[in-house]
Write a structure and sequence with these properties.
Length: 343
Amino acid sequence: NKYVTIKRFIDGLPSGLDFELRSAPLTPATPQGSEDVIVKNLFVSIDPYQINRMKEYSSSQETVEVARRLLPGQRIDAFGVGRVVASGNAEFKRDELVAGMLGWEEYTVVRPGVMLTKIDSNLDFPLSYHLGILGPSGLTAYAGFYDVCKPKKGEKVLVSAACGSVGHLVGQFAKLSGCYVVGCAGSKKKVELLKEKLGFDDAFNYKEETDVKSALKRYFPDGIDIYFDNVGAEMQEAAVANMNAFGRVAVCGAISRYTDAGKRAAPDMIDVIYKRITIRGFLAYDHLSIYDDFISATSDHIRHGRMQSLEDISQGLESVPSAFAGLFRGDNVGKKLVQLAHI
Ligand code: NDP
């Protein structure tokens, strides 16, 4: 079984050279292997949070089940979709398609209790959607926007990393809720996509702005009501400075800090107090109670052409390291995936 691992702990920006491909026989996860499910991985998800597991000193995220620290040489668990090739678990049969915690590897031995679900054969969508728009990214966007931001029609919404996996879905949910939406992203191509293909009211390239605070004043002359924060640092500070009374900030991610420990957001607390702003972090997996609503609403939007999924798919296990490093350079447009095999 070929798998991707880190060669050493990563400090700062990752590069393809921090990783290597190794090979090892499949080992049973349970003592006799009698309840294991062996999955041939078809698509694996490439997610920014993985970098926080690859540092020598990781933060409090160690306490979060999906973000346990990795050691050089270890296999790397990651969301994926695949096909069952052998099963000792009565719930899963050979050849069934499944989604869950698999790994950056050809095959994963899934032990009982690890998140694994059958893909609903009534949902006639591309398999890759179960990692993006109908998977963890979609749930993050849906839960963060509806449960945390609690939008009202006509409110003004800013989304950062807006052309990324979570961001492009948040903007579309916001438009469907009757909000005014501006996205910020790191290239001209992304800005055009947001405005021309995804229906954002406006978008800008934050790399071309010397002062993001005054840029936000231009894009939101009447202030911001909701900021869906994927990046942290200066953009969060600027959003809070431009926020209306009772504004909400959903802190989804802080990618600028994942590779640069100095990038801390320090929004002005006087603004927070007098404008009664709520700044709330969240994790998608605390919102599983709305999972069924999320799947039914989102699949309906896709079927009726009201939502689009942007995907960016590389081919082959050997492309995982560069696909991952590319997240931190802004190479990806939409959900970054690697396809390892065909059904
Ligand atoms: P994306 O698809 O958005 O990929 C990351 C994007 O972030 C890049 O394409 C790049 O776009 C942008 N970026 C990279 N480095 C920087 C930087 N230094 N400053 C500003 N932008 C940067 O990833 P996801 O949609 O999967 O994740 C988005 C965020 O949400 C991440 O922070 C992630 O950790 C978080 N997340 C949180 C979850 C939760 O439960 N709370 C669940 C899933 C994700 P650009 O070209 O615009 O710079």
